[in-house]
Specification:
2 helices; 7-stranded parallel β-sheet; 234 residues; BacA/B; mainly beta; Polymer-forming cytoskeletal protein; elongated
Length: 234
Amino acid sequence: MAELFDKYERTLRGQSTASSKVDSVHIAGSGVVAGGKYNRISISGSGKVTGNVEAEEIKVSGSARFMGDVTAQFFKCAGSCKIEGNVKSDLFKSAGSISISGSIEGNEVKIAGALKSYGIKARILHVSGSFKAESVEAEEAFFEISEEAVAEKIVAKRITVRPSRGENMLSLGKILKYALRRHALPILEAREISADSVTVEDVIIKGNIVAKEIVLRGKADIVGSIQGEVKKEK
């Protein structure tokens, strides 16, 4: 297994060969890690990973740039992360801002803050904040919308859309923000939404929906075509 980390050893220690396995890497402050296979990568501060990386666990607290594909059982970013490739993770968590040039694929994906990604594919997806993606595919997708929410296509068995918790709090800032907007509700824009069931609460959806059941709660509205049974609730 030591040969898997030759590149890492040469980069950090200037050696031509590696004699031992590096189980984990920790950056505190600022640093660079070469791509490769690791048990654990931890970045506290500002870090860069050059090349494709595979690890059991990757944690970022601060900012990080991944210059390649990322594969991890557990990935967590608290702060700002930029991934220049695709991501595969059993459990993917992000709190803050994350930009992915490729797609996310995972069992459970949880986003709190802002996300930009080409595609999202998960068994369970929970987005709280804003997001922009070409395609979204999940068994269960839960969206708490605050600002920008844009997708070309969303496909899931069950979809729930509602304002983020912050949007439900009455404040002067909220009143002023809504006064400058045409609609006093968050907006989800998606050219095509396909699901077994779609539940929308106090959010405007701009797009076409195809579903067996569509539930509209509060001031929810659909600006587009609808195919399916529509139920309105208070």
